[in-house]
Amino acid sequence: MSQKHSKSQQRRQEDKARRRKHRLEHQMTPVRPRRAGDETDLLLMKAFDDMQARGALAGMPTEFNPPGQEKMSEILQEFVEPYLQYTENVPQVEKLMVVASVAWNAALMEGDNRASLLQGMRESIPPDALDDTLAIIDGMIKRKLKHFAAYRRFVVSVQVTDTGDGFHLAVASLEPGPTA
Fold it and tell me: How many Cβ atoms are within 10 Å of 165's Cβ, its own excluded?
């Protein structure tokens, strides 16, 4: 199993190097940095509050950004890698990260909890983009379940800032503990 684990780590490192190269080759359009309390965080926090209100995290002790684990920003960036090629600037990357965060969280849920989270997301998507966005979310949920099943942290907040030559991703995550 350690050989499989090392192959996985090697693949991740190769993917990170490829992403770095991609960002350097495809210079992002400069934009002003995000302000705290921006609508992106509000959308994610609303989705997270909805999860809690529905009892999706009931009885689970939680820990924000658990120490000693891989950075969730790196994991999420690897998760969206196939989709980054369709972004042209930092605001598009930010929208992608929000959609990816919802898909990621939905993949961690089952049944009514997942359906309820996705229904809340539907209400915030413009009607002309609804079908495409839901298809992307569905594909991302499948990707999460197939390639990132070992990661059980919920994404609570994402922040994408322009670095002048790409973007920086900051992610706040929540680790659900064992049920009480």
Answer: 10
User: Which residues make Cβ contacts (< 8 Å) with residue 73, sequence separation at least 6?
Assistant: 169, 170, 171
pLDDT tens for 152-166 read 988 988 889 888 888
Structural domain boundaries of the chain?
2-176
Q: What is the pLDDT of residues 68-96, one digit of tens each?
A: 778 899 999 999 999 999 999 999 999 99
